[in-house]
Write a structure and sequence with these properties.
By secondary structure, this protein is mainly alpha-helical. The chain is built from 15 helices and no strands. The protein folds into two domains: about 80 residues, no CATH class; about 270 residues, no CATH class. Helix 2 packs across helix 4.
Length: about 375
């Protein structure tokens, strides 16, 4: 393997960020070609282990894989560079498109364009449902979990975090009934170092949100920070899974935007570079820009910035804390079973999202 200098990696991370169209599968394939095949910066085994680790975390797995790859090469500064360069190009594009949408979205020609986007989004979500179900529903109990997850969301209107929590608890408990041996692995990092990393990144994550809530007097901006921070801790299964929760709250409870606007935002995120979870930036921008009752692009810009911070700062916390524990996590039966159950529940979540979208596309 080769070990590039920090400056040699920057153009590569930037190129990955600019070319990262097509969702996480395409983004992961792009990084594999750039990092493993073309440059040999990581071995195939290291890359696959890193991918498995990132898929266990809440948040966008492709962005976290880029962050881990940078960390593997150059520590914290490498992880920050890779993660930020993966996100920022797409974030800039989404911000510009959100402003255009807010100002000119009612123009008939643009409405026609977004009608086509809505239909495409419905197809994309259904494809995601099939793809995730094939990967996650490998046992009969996984099908049961998925069915109960859908029933809880669609029929009982249970909150998304509760569904995910119950699935994880069931998976953790059910692992105690298994007797098959599993390999063990040791951790080569001190607990003090891990605690220091957690403390540092918790402060970095929450300090701006606390400052806004305590001193700015901007209640909407503080609410946006709190909401998307909460969202960042339950985004197992990717953006499609969390959209159901985000739609449930931002559309039906907070009324930050309409269901139609939510679908338009997802369509924009699908057709621009960067992680699909950047749809949260679109939601935050519209919520902030309309908070005063009049259109305020400056307030929308601040809200978009707060949304990005609350969405992606936790990703660095997860990666930098968990990276030294990759092999150890995989060796723990109960933790692996809990995460498998959560993945199964995500299938029910995406099915609920598919029906929600279909109702608004076909009957709106």
């Amino acid at each position: 393997m080769t070990h590039p200098s920090f400056t040699q990696t920057l153009p590569v991370w930037g190129r990955i960020g600019v070319l990262s169209f097509g969702g996480p599968a395409a983004q992961i394939a792009l990084m594999h070609r750039e990092i493993v095949e073309d440059r040999n910066w990581m071995s195939e085994r290291e890359y696959l282990n890193a991918l498995a680790f990132c898929m266990l975390l809440p948040g966008p797995e492709a962005m976290q894989l880029a962050t881990y790859s940078g960390w593997r090469l150059h520590g914290i500064r490498g992880g920050l560079a890779a993660g930020l360069l993966f996100v920022l190009p797409g974030a800039a594009v989404i911000l510009a498109l959100a402003a255009v949408y807010l100002l000119y979205g009612a123009v008939p020609i643009l409405q026609s364009v977004f009608l086509g986007i809505k239909a495409a989004v419905l197809v994309i979500v259904l494809q995601a449902l099939l793809r995730v179900s094939k990967r996650s529903l490998t046992q009969k109990r996984h099908w049961l979990i998925a069915g109960l997850s859908f029933f809880g969301l669609f029929c009982l209107n249970l909150p998304f975090p509760l569904v995910i929590l119950l699935a994880g608890v069931y998976g953790f408990w059910s692992a105690s009934l298994q007797t098959a041996p599993i390999r063990q692995s040791k951790v080569d990092v001190s607990p003090i170092s891990s605690l220091a990393t957690i403390a540092l990144w918790l402060v970095i994550w929450w300090a701006p949100i606390w400052a806004v809530g305590s001193y700015s007097g901007n209640e909407v901006l503080a609410e946006i920070g709190l909401f998307f921070s909460k969202l960042a801790t339950v985004t197992f299964g990717g953006a499609y899974a969390v959209l159901a929760y985000m739609a449930q709250d931002t559309v039906e409870a907070k009324h930050w935007l309409s269901a139609t606007e939510m679908m338009d935002g997802l369509g924009l995120a699908e057709t621009t570079p960067g992680p699909l979870i950047l749809v949260t930036e679109f939601v935050g921008f519209l919520a902030g820009a309309r908070a005063s009752g009049e259109l305020d692009l400056g307030a929308g810009l601040m809200a978009a910035g707060m949304t990005l911070w609350a969405t992606f700062a936790p990703c660095f916390l997860w990666v930098f804390t968990g990276a030294p524990y990759i092999e150890w996590i995989a060796s723990k039966r109960r933790l692996s079973a809990a995460l498998a159950a959560i993945s199964a529940a995500v299938v029910g979540v995406i099915l609920n999202l598919s029906i929600w979208f279909a109702l608004h596309v076909l009957f709106a």
